[in-house]
């Protein structure tokens, strides 16, 4: 690929929702962008109403809202059916004492019921907390406890991983099957609660490099950002079939798996089950998916499986997007040659609530770059004093505040919230990047110890804390080790307590201990025992950076 490395990809000919992007960048205002949403006319807002009910009121009730695919199972729901189910769930929640502002969690696999639960919670003015389906007891408990969730929607299988006795605030657990079987009079009142743009709607827990995961709270105003980025970046049109591969427990799965496409009235695909190249290709061919949003790790896995894509008709694909981790130029060229589509990288974070740096479909793509700032967004590359650096210099990737998707708070932790805004007028991302003369932004690395494995944010502190709970582990330092498929994989360096000796079995036992208590995706894929861990002289803090440098040096030597 060496020769092609710098080749710029021109837009594929076609018509896109946003063509005159340079002019829009000059005149953009968020107020204009919100036109098309109903609160602009009525003055009343509710994100769930805007996402689903509005389309029924505007005459699109019979349009297909979702295709559900899991193994051989197939289900279809129209917008009207999604609205009615959402109403039902909303009434059950009300009858179980849920009120505006309460935190209600959803712990379900990727099923229509998971999406409907999230909307129902928001519909009655409560705050939805979607949990990733693979979480184990401790991860579930920590999150619900942190913001004192009162009600949880789950099912008979997953409830086994909910340690209810350790979650004091949780007074009710609802089984989706029971909700589905509840019957209300046809004349029951409309459950929509009209709220303020600033009222909370969604809480996502995400990792930082220190401490437990933080609860990132978004307000109803975020739907303005979801709506317009769905229109311009996802380029959703009425005849599209849209598939986002992420689970709604992650912010990509909620914002760009649920809100943004549905705000733009897309027919979405909800797929159950684990990643398997054949199944993914079959799904695209069967449902004639036109827009596909996934992550570099998934694309790299598909690429590594070689020619099997030739067995499927993937010609329906017209627009492909990527998020969550650096997208290698090699992957972009693979998709271009094999699928005839460009992969459009997008950059944002749980905290930013929506896209901030994007490759618009009508703009040229520079492989290796995440794209250009979204209209209305100003990026700055800052030095350690918060001063803007000239083009081409690597510095802290920051964004001018505010914008509608920007988080409202970190639940119960003003200090952690304030840390993002240490320079007046800027949101500081924690990423390092540079920007070229044409505004394209190039990701360099994180500015902290956060690990990004397969696009999932993993806080080393959380993994280290779990490791040292194991009786054999004295100390632990956890890093992201570079990996060709997953970007990084979780590697732990540990020291053993006296009386324990290293063995394959012991290391496996430690790994399983983390997996069973926290979650599979955070369990170290490699554990290495050291005599001692590098530490700072004064505070005795474990130096993850040194561990990482050592690991990178070794990998280089062995190649
Ligand atoms: C990283 C996911 C390179 C980045 C939406 C960021 C990326 C963190 C990209 C946020 C990209 C996200 N290229 N790195 N296109 N997109 N990241 O909160 O380090 O799970 O700070 O949000 O992922 O992860 P989060």
TrEMBL record:
Keyword annotations of the record: Acetylation, ATP-binding, Ligase, Nucleotide-binding
EC main group: ligase
UniProt xrefs under Gene3D superfamilies: 3.30.300.30, N-terminal domain of ligase-like (3.40.50.12780)
A Pfam cross-reference name: AMP-binding
Domain AMP-dependent synthetase/ligase: 58-411
PROSITE patterns linked to this entry: AMP_BINDING (PS00455)
One annotated GO molecular function: acetate-CoA ligase activity
Residues of the AMP-binding enzyme C-terminal domain: 462-536
Tagged with keyword Lipid biosynthesis: no
Record InterPro entries: AMP-bd_C (IPR025110), AMP-bd_C_sf (IPR045851), AMP-binding_CS (IPR020845), AMP-dep_synth/lig_dom (IPR000873), ANL_N_sf (IPR042099)
EC number: 6.2.1.1
PANTHER family: ACETYL-COENZYME A SYNTHETASE, ACETYL-COENZYME A SYNTHETASE 1
The name this protein goes by in its record: acetate--CoA ligase
Protein's organism: Siminovitchia sediminis
């Amino acid at each position: 690929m060496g020769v092609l490395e710098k080749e710029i990809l021109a837009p594929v000919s076609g018509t896109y929702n946003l063509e005159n992007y340079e002019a829009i960048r000059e005149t953009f205002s968020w107020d204009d962008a919100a036109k098309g949403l109903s609160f602009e006319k009525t003055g009343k807002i509710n994100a769930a109403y805007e996402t689903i009910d509005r389309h029924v009121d505007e005459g699109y009730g019979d349009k297909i809202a979702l295709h559900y695919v899991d193994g051989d199972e197939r289900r279809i729901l129209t917008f009207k059916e999604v609205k009615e189910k959402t109403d039902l769930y909303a009434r059950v929640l009300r009858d179980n004492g849920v009120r505006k502002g309460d935190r209600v969690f959803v712990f379900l696999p990727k099923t229509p019921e998971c999406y409907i639960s999230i909307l129902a919670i928001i519909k009655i003015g409560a705050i939805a907390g979607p949990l990733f389906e693979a979480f184990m007891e401790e991860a579930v408990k920590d999150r619900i406890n942190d913001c004192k969730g009162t009600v949880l929607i789950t099912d008979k299988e997953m409830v086994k991983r909910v340690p209810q006795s350790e979650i004091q605030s949780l007074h009710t657990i609802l089984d989706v099957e029971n909700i589905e079987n509840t019957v209300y009079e046809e004349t029951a009142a409309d459950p929509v609660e009209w709220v303020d743009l600033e009222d909370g709607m969604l809480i996502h827990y995400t990792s930082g490099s220190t401490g437990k995961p933080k609860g990132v709270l978004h307000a109803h105003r975020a739907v303005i950002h979801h709506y317009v980025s769905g229109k311009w970046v996802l380029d959703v049109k009425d005849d599209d079939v849209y598939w986002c591969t992420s689970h709604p427990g992650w912010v990509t799965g909620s914002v760009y798996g649920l809100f943004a496409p549905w705000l733009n009235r897309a027919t979405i695909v909800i797929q159950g089950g684990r990643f398997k190249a054949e199944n993914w290709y079959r799904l695209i061919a069967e449902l004639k998916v036109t827009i596909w949003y996934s992550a570099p790790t998934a694309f790299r896995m598909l690429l590594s499986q070689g020619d099997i894509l030739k067995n499927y008709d993937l010609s329906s694909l017209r627009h492909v997007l990527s998020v969550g981790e650096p997208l290698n130029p090699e992957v972009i060229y693979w998709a271009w040659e094999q699928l005839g589509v460009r992969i459009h990288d997008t950059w944002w974070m749980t905290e930013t609530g929506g896209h901030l740096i994007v490759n618009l479909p009508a703009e040229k793509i520079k492989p290796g770059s995440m794209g250009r700032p979204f209209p209305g967004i100003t990026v700055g590359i800052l030095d350690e004093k918060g001063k803007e650096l000239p083009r081409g210099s690597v510095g802290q990737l920051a964004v001018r505040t505010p914008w509608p998707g920007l988080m409202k708070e970190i639940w119960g932790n003003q200090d952690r919230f304030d840390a993002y805004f240490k320079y007046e007028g800027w949101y500081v991302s924690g990423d390092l990047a540079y920007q070229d003369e044409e505004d394209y932004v190039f990701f360099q690395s994180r500015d902290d110890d956060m690990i990004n494995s397969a696009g999932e944010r993993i806080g080393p502190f959380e993994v280290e804390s779990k490791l040292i709970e194991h009786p054999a582990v004295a100390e632990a330092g956890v890093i992201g080790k570079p990996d060709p498929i997953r970007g990084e994989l979780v590697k732990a360096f540990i020291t053993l307590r006296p009386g324990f000796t290293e063995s394959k079995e012991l290391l496996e036992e430690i790994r399983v201990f983390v997996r069973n208590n926290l979650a599979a995706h955070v369990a170290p894929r490699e554990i290495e025992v050291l005599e001692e861990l590098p530490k700072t002289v004064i505070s005795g803090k474990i130096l993850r950076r040194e561990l990482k440098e050592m690991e990178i040096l070794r990998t280089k030597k062995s190649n």
